[in-house]
Structures
1.
Amino acid sequence: MPQRAVITGITGQDGSYLTELLLEKGYEVHGLVRRTSDLSRSWIDPLYRDPVLRERRLFIHYVDLDDVTTLRRTLIQAQPAEVYHLAGQSHVGLSFEIPEATCRWVAMGTLGLLEILRDLSAPARFFHASSSEIFGRPDMIPQNETTPMSPISPYGCAKSFATQMIRIYRQSYGVYASNGILYNHESPRRAGSFVTQKICRAAAAIRLGVEQELRLGDLSAQRDWGDARDYVRGIWLSLQHDEGDDYIFATGQSHSVQDVAEIAFAAMDLDWRSYVKHDERLMRPAEPNRLVGDSTKARTRLGWEPLSDFRRMILEMTRSQHRLLSAK
Ligand code: NAP
């Protein structure tokens, strides 16, 4: 019998890489997608069109996160050993514009899943994709699993609620549930609304003469940016441990938005200073202090380590955008 896993948010960056990883490991994968998801434009489309996988080892179920009855039915029928909960509104900036929807999906969506999990006759291990944004503007640098949560965005607040609920269900009901406190992670599959991909795409578009300039907010903003493929390995490792727990997944190194621009534009033989314009309207209402993670616990307990390199990742993302735009 293959190990069976359910993934929420299977069409996203992490969901698609995790699907590939689990299929490689011999899992049967059940992906939950919302009614409005466009599968044909998602990264899992090539996998789902593969007749060897489709409806044999890769199954898609249409379920919205706030449709708890259908969620319950789907989980009861799938009987997974592992549930990876990655779905949700994942953009911090957007969460200031749609705070209620962000909280409904990110916070209450996770609670709904925990309630279902509690009732399952065959218990499943549960992973929750938490975020460094739960720390807000921390006094402690780097942050670890004991750093107090003090979010400064609706997204961070919703993730804090969900992170704490995971802890409560673990302690109070003995549910196997783990938080992966994920620092920013990128890849060629990163959605275009995130600053790294926005920069990589713009550098490629300017090189091709499709665009003339790039407008950005705070160039000095710093993040601990890792590679999604490393983080997805960590996500899987989290559920291979005997007990549920909380783990920071981070590189421990921070880079600025300007660093991304320098690498991406140089990859296209351009000087970023000639094309990047500051735009006050793109400043975040509340910019976190340096979010840098200490992943010692994940390294020692799970044997996880990030293998990629920041510069290589930005180069790969920019070249990938160049290929995509050239093909249009
Ligand atoms: P992503 O590419 O934006 O993917 C988000 C996924 O969630 C997509 O599959 C999306 O489906 C789905 N989704 C969104 N709202 C939904 C809803 N209401 N009901 C059902 N599905 C919904 O995000 P990601 O980068 O893979 O991140 C995965 C998880 O890690 C997210 O929870 C994110 O908040 C968290 N995280 C990510 C990072 C990072 O740097 N990437 C850092 C910390 C935490 P559609 O295809 O239909 O849009």
2.
Amino acid sequence: MDYQQLIERLYQETKDLAASGKVASYIPALADVPANSFAISVKTCKNELFNVGDHRIPFSIQSISKVFTFILAFKIIGPEIWNRIGREPSGSAFNSLIQLEIEQGVPRNPLINAGAIVVADILVSLIKNPKQKLLEFVRSLADDDNILYDKGVAASEKETGHRNYALAHFMKSFGTITNPVEEVLDLYFHQCSLAMNTDQLARAFLFLANEGTNPFTKEEILNPSRAKRLKALMLTTGMYNESGDFAFRVGIPAKSGVGGGIVAIIPNQLSIAVWSPPLNAAGNSVAGIEALERFTTYSEKSIF
Ligand code: GLN
């Protein structure tokens, strides 16, 4: 398979489709990102890297970070995590409050905001300096010490993240959040502000295509059973309330963020990261989904 030729074709075919989406502006710092940014990177288990477009430009990974924090917490407390968070698709928006009241403050899954805020609470309880630990973890996964938090994005979200404050306080009223809301959200806003490019994201997720073990360093990040569970979660919840449609159209586990990034994996083969900031109504990158759909269609590779 000539991945370089394939992603160049996807780039040409899908770059103009971004025009029907809208760059996230509810976090003011995200609104400044050029809407026509577009990048695709593929990293294979054979250590090949293919890329096209703005693959060197870091962007705000936003909800993609929910996978990194979940891994950290899952590594430490294992299946106990399911005492605090569910593992069902939510069927509602990533920042919805509605289900939480009916379900006694227990979030549906770790890849929506409420679930990730509970994960952040777990990390604040268990780790002395969780921001530093998270940064080191992401740097080691991507094998790149240049990855940083974007302080401007974190501050912008802190100022305007009223819904996340509402979610956190609401959950605290049920006892689901155990630490001070300010402290938990400081970690949450920082994780969302992590700035990475598509090359770094594809590298950081490759271990999931290799049953949980980094194929180059041979370090086990998650054991194969836990890696399987995380991939199942990504497939069923990684694209929020568009996860079913994404599985139908693209057919691989993935995670998106409102910065316009999506990262996905094909087990035993590769990871692929795309970035195009304009989003659809569910908060997922319009051109990113199109590119991934064509990637699995043209290559005839998916998990199904
Ligand atoms: N930081 C964003 C928020 O909390 C993350 C949401 C997302 O990427 N879907 O609203």
